[in-house]
Amino acid sequence: MRIVLCYPVEPHHIAQIQAAAPDCEVVDAGQERIDELLPTADIFIGHAKVPVDWERVLKANRLRWIQSSAAGLDHCLVPGVIDSEIVVSSASGLFAPQVAEQTMTLLLDLLRSQGRFTRANARHEFIRLPTDDLRQKKIGIVGLGGNGRRIAKVLKPFDVSIVATDYFSFDPPAEVDRLLPADAVDEMLAEVDIAILALPLNAQTRGMFDADRFAKMRPGSYFINVARGQVVVESALVDALDSGHLRGAGVDVTEVEPLPDESPLWDRENVIITPHVGAQSRWRVDDTTVMVCENLRRFQAGKSLYNTVDKQLGFPSPEVVWHG
Ligand SMILES: NC(=O)C1=CN([C@@H]2O[C@H](COP(=O)(O)OP(=O)(O)OC[C@H]3O[C@@H](n4cnc5c(N)ncnc54)[C@H](O)[C@@H]3O)[C@@H](O)[C@H]2O)C=CC1
Ligand SMILES: O=C(O)C(=O)COP(=O)(O)O
Question: Domain D-isomer specific 2-hydroxyacid dehydrogenase NAD-binding: where (predicted)?
Fold first, then answer.
């Protein structure tokens, strides 16, 4: 079998993968050669950030398993793959520690007026501006998967209460005071001071945060998005900020990336923007390779894989999510 890699591996990661699959040929395609080599793969491990001719891959009829090195599967869950026999597994939960740190960065910067202080610092102005507190805030997390759970765990010691929604129904971890079904999102938004998006992008969630939904949020609440920009209708977010209905927003992801120069999200003191760096970490490739090797051993032994995705849904069920 041929394993084609397309994530930023170093020679020692390739050696780990080869040791986990001694009978396989391991080829590191990188972004440069992924489109060319994907049709020759039995197993694809990675995240192609260049256009891939999926028709050609499906026509070659060789690929059996895609192990995405991203949690979001919007890059590979194309209709032809969904309808095929190809098994797809995600990187769900793998980046939860760093996504939670990124969430805290956005949230604390927003509440503690860091955007305004940073601008004032650039002008050498030492001015005391009002700040807000996390203490006693009610937080709503939309999507209690790997990232949502870790965000709840990191936030809880700040003396907050936490509600969440999820597609699945399960006993939530101790940090989460209440778990509601996905369709109770408006009920949750009406009662929380801060909404945090940690759900996948799919046909159901694309454009889910539109003008109607923002209107359901409590006046003066904050909005954080560490999921996917296209879950949000960005013009509606801008309107909600313009009208003062939302007090501020922190976004690691935007509808179009890079965020265009003319976007009205720029130049606002109550908007903190980071350039989709939530998954970045010095540990990322090491952590990914540990899970990849475990899944490779399971695949060869015919066992079920961590993070196997229900391709119709576009995300894995909680029992199979990798927690490291
Ligand atoms: N900012 C960044 O760099 C990163 C962004 N992401 C994004 O975050 C998403 C979540 O990542 P993980 O937590 O690792 O994935 P996950 O698969 O562990 O969790 C997603 C959760 O969302 C739930 N869900 C699905 N539809 C929902 C809905 N309509 N309402 C409420 N919950 C819903 C699922 O049941 C699941 O529990 C990814 O799909 C990806 O798009 C992930 C990693 C890094
Ligand atoms: O894992 C994900 O879904 C991410 O958003 C990470 O994105 P990246 O691979 O860092 O461009």
Answer: 104-278
pLDDT, tens digit, 9 for 90 and up, residues 56-87? 999 999 999 999 999 999 899 999 999 999 99
Å from CA of 47 to ligand 2 middle:
8
DSSP 3-state assignment of 284? helix
Give pLDDT tens digits for 227-270.
Answer: 999 999 999 999 999 999 999 999 999 999 999 999 999 989 99
Q: What is the pTM of this model?
A: 0.97
**Which ligand is located closest to the Cα atom of residue 68?**
2
DSSP 95-163: THHHHHHHHHHHHHHHHTTHHHHHHHHHTT----------TT-EEEEE--SHHHHHHHHHHGGGT-EEE
Q: Report the nearest atom of ligand 1 relative to the CA of 96.
A: 14
What pLDDT, on a 0 to 100 scale, did the predictor assign at position 198? 98
Which ligand 2 atom minimizes the distance to the CA of 284? Answer: 10
Residue intervals of the chain classified under CATH 3.40.50.720 are 2-92+281-320, 96-273
Q: Is 47 a pocket residue for ligand 2 (Cβ < 6 Å)? A: yes
Q: Is 24 left (phi over 0), alpha (psi -120 to 50) or beta?
A: beta
Name the strand (E) or helix (H) holding 65: strand 65-68
CA of 191 to the centre of ligand 1 (A): 22
Report the nearest-CA residue for atom 16 of ligand 1: 145
Q: Which CATH architecture has domain 2-92+281-320?
A: 3-Layer(aba) Sandwich (3.40)
Pick the CATH number of 96-273 from 3.40.50.720, 3.30.1330.60, 2.30.30.230, 3.40.50.2300: 3.40.50.720
Ligand 1 centre to CA of 163 (Å) is: 16
Residues with CB under 6 A from ligand 1: 71-72, 92-93, 95, 99, 142-148, 165-168, 182, 198-201, 204-205, 226-228, 252-253, 276, 278-279, 315-316, 318, 321
Average pLDDT over residues 207-224: 98
Closest ligand to residue 321's CA: 1
- Pairwise CA distance, residues 171 & 176, whole Å: 10
The per-residue pLDDT of the chain, averaged, comes to: 97
ipTM above 0.85, yes or no: yes
